[in-house]
Amino acid sequence: MEVFTHDLEHLFQQLGLPSDAADIRSFIEEHSLSDEENLLTATFWTTSQRQFLEEAKSQDADWVEQIDILDTLLRKA
Questions:
Q1: What are 46-54's contacts with CB under 8 Å, separation 24+?
Q2: Which of 2, 19, 39, 49 is disulfide-compatible with 45, CB 3.0–4.6 A?
Q3: What is the pTM of this model?
Q4: Is residue 2 included in any domain, yes or no?
Q5: Domain range for residue 19?
């Protein structure tokens, strides 16, 4: 059985985004979601990023916890 480490750094890598701590902070500072917006349909995702997020959520993949954390971070004012 393989054990995978899923954290925000790895999620950002999976999304093809810069993934060091400063880059993650910058992304969160530059992007935000209102209460009405859905993370999966946010306009700042590319098509492939959106597909990855949608598939991970629909399959209840190991990434779900980190996707939910990112969702929460993007909603903080």
A1: 46/16, 48/16, 49/15, 49/16, 49/17, 52/14, 52/15, 53/15
A2: 49
A3: 0.88
A4: no
A5: 8-75
Q: Is 1 among the domain residues? A: no
Whether residue 17 contacts residue 27, with contact meaning beta carbons closer than 8 Å, is answered with yes
**Token pair for 27:** 């992304």
Measured CA distances, 22 to 8, 9, 29, 68 (Å): 12, 11, 10, 20
Per-residue pLDDT of the chain (77 residues; tens, 9 = 90+): 455 678 999 999 999 999 999 999 999 999 999 989 999 999 999 999 999 999 999 998 889 999 999 999 999 85
Domain count, the chain: 1
